[in-house]
Amino acid sequence: MTILELDNVTKSFDGVCAVNDVSLGFESGKITCLIGPNGAGKTTLFNLITGFLRPQNGTIRYRGQDITNLSPWRIAAIGIGRLFQDVHIFRRLSAIDNVLTAFKDQAAENALLAVLTPWRTIKAERAVHEQGQALLAAVGLTGMGHTLAEDLSYGQQKLLSLARLLALNADVLLLDEPTAGVSPARVKELLDLIRQLATSGKTIVVIEHNMNVVFELADWVFFLDQGQVALFGNATDVLGDPDVRATYLGKQEW
Question: Which of 182, 180, 175 lies closest to 197, judged by CA?
Fold first, then answer.
């Protein structure tokens, strides 16, 4: 079932067409990889989907609802979460506090309930804290909850960003180079986690330059070039295409 779709979406910057009449869709329970050379329009697509940019033409729909002109916070609230290529964290907060900021409707946010039923608030907050620790463990940061985010390595900060994203419990996850900077020892665990999320019904879209990762993860692959979808299919078909190899992969082996 297609959860997120773009119909004839176009976006230009100073006369340069970054996304050119693109139509594509993403299915629930599937992992779709976007590949292509730098400047192909991959990150621009993510910016359009999440409301950081607005297209000149075309429509973006989530579960049949037109979200083309919604603000980023509204798009996040309805169930579309994003992991940025650059780390976005609260550097002076601990790892666990970073994750806790992402949970919705926490009991302690309601001052009246906190005063009238403090025991319930304490119990609820304890449960949220345990969920946060479980998410840190899921991304390989067990025992690092009280470490300041700025004291984590870049790869660990990337994993922390993913844990915070998972706390949103979004149905669609847009992951921009999730393995970049992550230690090789953690990459396999990270890929396993992404597969588990897809199996649970999440819609996963990944921008990725590591073709080994694409082969391991992707149910479907869109190859973008000069702002357009040049090829679509499974990883073997797309990465084995002579034109893809010539324009993007060159002599890269995997």
Answer: 175
- In angstroms and rounded to an integer, the radius of gyration of the C-alpha atoms of the chain is 19
- Measure Cα distances from 156 to 102, 147, 183, 190, 197 in Å: 18, 11, 9, 12, 20
Structural domain including 114 reads 89-168
> In sequence order, what are the residues at sequence separation of 6 or more whose Cβ sits closer than 8 angstroms to the Cβ of residue 98?
89, 90, 149, 160, 163, 164
pLDDT for 179 beyond 60: yes
Q: What is the pLDDT of residues 77-103, one digit of tens each?
A: 999 999 998 888 899 999 999 999 888
Question: Do 49 and 6 share a structural domain?
Answer: yes
pLDDT at 70: 96
Tokens 């819609």 found at: 203
Give the pLDDT band (50/70/90) at residue 184: confident
**Do residues 138 and 201 share a domain?**
no
| Whether residue 63 sits in one domain with residue 175 | yes
